[in-house]
Amino acid sequence: MIIKPQVLYLSSHHTNQSLFFLQRPFVHGNIATTASSLPPWLENYSSILSLQKLEKKKQQVNKRFYLTPNCSQAETTHTTSTTNIEKSTIKIKVSVEVKIVKGGFFSSLSLDRGIDDITDLLGKSLLLELLSSDLDPKTGLEKDTIKAYVHKARQGGKSVKYETHFEVPNDFGDIGAILVENEHHKEMYLETIVLDGFTKGPIQIDCASWIHSKFDNPTKRVFFTNKCYLPSETPRGLKRLREEELSNLRGNGEGERKSFERIYDYDVYNDIGDPDKSLDLQRSPMGGKERPYPRRCRTGRPRSEADPSSEKRRRGFYVPRDECFSEVKEQTFSTKALYSVLLILLPSLGKIIEDKELPFSYFHDIDSLFSIGLDLPPDHENHHHHHHDHELEKGILRTILPRLVKTISSGNGGGHVLRFEAPETINRDRFFWFRDEEFARQTVAGLNPCSIRLVTEWPLKSKLDPNIYGPAESKITSEIIDDGMGGSFSIEEAIKQKKLFMLDYHDILLPFVRKVRQLEGKTLYGSRTLFLLTPEETLRPIAIELTRPPMDGKGQWKEVFTPSWHSTSIWLWRLAKAHVLAHDSGYHQLVSHWLRTHCVTEPYVIATNRQLSVMHPIYRLLHPHFRYTMEINALAREALINAGGTIETSFSPGKYSMEISSAAYDLEWRFDMEALPADLIRRGMAIEDPFAPHGLRLTIKDYPYANDGLLLWDIIKLWVTDYVNHYYKEPSLVEYDEELQAWWTEIRTVGHADKKDEPWWPTLKAPKDLIKILTTIIWVTSGHHAAVNFGQYAYGGYFPNRPTITRTKMPNEDPSKEEWEKFMAKPETALLKCFPSQLQATRVMAVLDILSTHSPDEEYIGEKMEPSWSEDSVIKAAFGRFSDRLKKLEGLIDERNQNTKLKNRSGAGILPYELLKPSSKPGVTGRGVPCSISI
């Protein structure tokens, strides 16, 4: 049968004209009016556009709504009275909040803008379609969508509100999703969509997303409501859409990614080097059999000409659109600051300090960085910059880095001074960095509390091949240890009583010593540092061993240094300590920080977006913990871990830094050991004990990172347990959740492909497995990252405390007569020459300051209720408990820091341990646990 569109004549209240409409409730919000009662969105413009034009425009708009109704409606009677129509539909008001953002639609003045303004004027900026959760009971197919354009209702300072009305049939079912099409030529940032008028109350959809222009990509954006559904529980009307949306996010793995896309895919790290710029900057790809590594986000850039295994580097690395730092909340301070430090300040430091290798001549010079500062180059020196860029740079440095860049006015129009804020550590105690007890304390309460381990075997032995690296036995003998312990008990006793601890950078660094030593101005050793646990639960350093493998025709060189009461030996001890600190700094930055948090998390983010629908409760649980991580990692590839970047130029391993990170991933990284309790047990820092708090007994009772960390771990785990058990009431639901299974499989076999066959990956069969996996991921992105990141300026800002590099070998390693005499005459100069150069130190200090800064829009753990959590009373209550526990944790940490019995966290001049306190103010505070790795 042929179905004719049914037209219904309604008499208008305002004029004697009749308007025709479809019988289906498919009416554009304000079309049912005539020229004499203009809708508000057109009234403003009535003086601009004549009424005839409006009339013509309105007819065109009406044409859009000639849709053929389906059979069931076609068969109903033709003469329906107005009142019936009102009863069979419900009028819904829809308002859409669009943010005004820098560079977004509303700030642009381009030609397209003119067209876009007219589109706005005509009420055609965004086309919305409502989708029902239900299928049509008669046909078993998806119901037709209900469409309408929204039109501009008002514009405030930060957002624009668009509105429309929908007539929704009473039998339409629940609204399950909204399709959005952006008719502008520029992207728009959609904040929320609110549908008001339902009997159950309004529906709010939190979009917080960029909507591409339909001219860039014709695919409509879909936004599901805030309700969560496991795949098996998806309302039937949304099944197809749920799968389609995931398929769109995966892309087809081809072509170069464009900035407006939202495609999540994997690649190896083949863009660290820049061989097209110079062959010195060529780096082997990371990821694959030879150099195992986690995967990064695929950008699809073309291959470099000089090295086909590398990708071409271009400014601005692609990340999926919604992963970008939001310019939406103010301009994010910390990113802009990070960009300006890496891309403006560091290059200008190179201009002031022309001699890259120049050491500090006196400790006084280091101190003056905090009091006098460095003059930044005056503007006219930057020939290659346009004046405008210049003003911009000055402005950026002045506004973004008020902590570091002071403006001083002088006769010549004023210059800039880079003056560092004195870190809190040196404010409290100027000599903190010099003391052995502080060196030891920082292994449990400093910036890298993740390396200290219990010594369980004696004598110490290397696992490396003695044919290549020389004798495997350590030179640290029982006699040396007995001396260090003052003969109070034997070495066997000390090991049995768990009194001996070690920082062991021997086997990880030794294979790189020969290569690093061929680089100018760099040296390296393998190292072991031994500590004794005192009766007061503090650590005392007793021996450092430095090893150089056989090289340049010489045999292995190995030396043990101990604290001493003689000037020559104590200066050698201080220099040995500087080397160990540089090893610890490099390991901290490359492994504890970059690899174990930033780098391994990227595959979790990619897999979550590719395999878990936005509607999936586990997607909603993880989402806040992944905010901005892909963007910060892209920035690191651009300017921190790249060839010639800050890490390579200023850290001990130089251009081999990333290879060391890969070696650590290969040898040490296991997902199951990233859980804090498992990590502590593996390092011998705890044993399982069902009667102890957290089920663990710590080997060093006063271990601030572990003490506070375990409380935070438990709080996270309780929240995850409540959450998982609510959605997976039957254990079998986990095994039969195909999205979840695909997610976990992809993390293991694609994101961490080089470890896919390892036996230690947890299986995912029951809720308890899921709880363990999720708690680990959330701990890594929140607690672990905060502990190794936000103390960087406090502990590394005064670099003698943690030099990032040692540039000269030990004075007693095969010295020439002249070298030895110089050391004997002025040992302090030997230490200053060994430390980072002025350029290296100031570069690192500027970067650490920025990395330690909390941005004003930081989101701390337990602070913000996600919209979907508040939709469910059980989850809402669980989140409330989670927040309360975190607030109590703050008080507990304060109590611990005031407890004078806990000598690793309180004492004269000691910085309290606050890195795991959940909340913080903006700035460099040395506390605060953000949800995600966002700096």
Automatic annotation (TrEMBL):
Region Disordered, annotated ranges: 275-314
InterPro entries from the UniProt entry: LipOase, LipOase_C, LipOase_C_sf, LipOase_CS, LipOase_Fe_BS, LipOase_plant, Lipoxygenase_dom_3, PLAT/LH2_dom
Compositional bias annotation for Basic and acidic residues: 302-311
Named cofactor requirement(s): Fe cation
Annotated localization: Cytoplasm; Plastid, Chloroplast
Gene Ontology annotations of biological process type: fatty acid biosynthetic process; lipid oxidation; oxylipin biosynthetic process
This protein's UniProt keywords: Chloroplast, Cytoplasm, Dioxygenase, Fatty acid biosynthesis, Fatty acid metabolism, Iron, Lipid biosynthesis, Lipid metabolism, Metal-binding, Oxidoreductase, Oxylipin biosynthesis, Plastid, Transit peptide
GO cellular component, one term: chloroplast
Pathway(s): Lipid metabolism; oxylipin biosynthesis
PLAT domain span: 94-225
Residue intervals of the Lipoxygenase domain: 228-935
UniProt GO MF annotations: linoleate 13S-lipoxygenase activity; metal ion binding
E.C. designation(s): 1.13.11.-
Protein's job: Plant lipoxygenase may be involved in a number of diverse aspects of plant physiology including growth and development, pest resistance, and senescence or responses to wounding.
Similarity remark: Belongs to the lipoxygenase family.
Database matches in PANTHER family: LIPOXYGENASE
Name of this chain's protein: Lipoxygenase
Organism: Crotalaria pallida
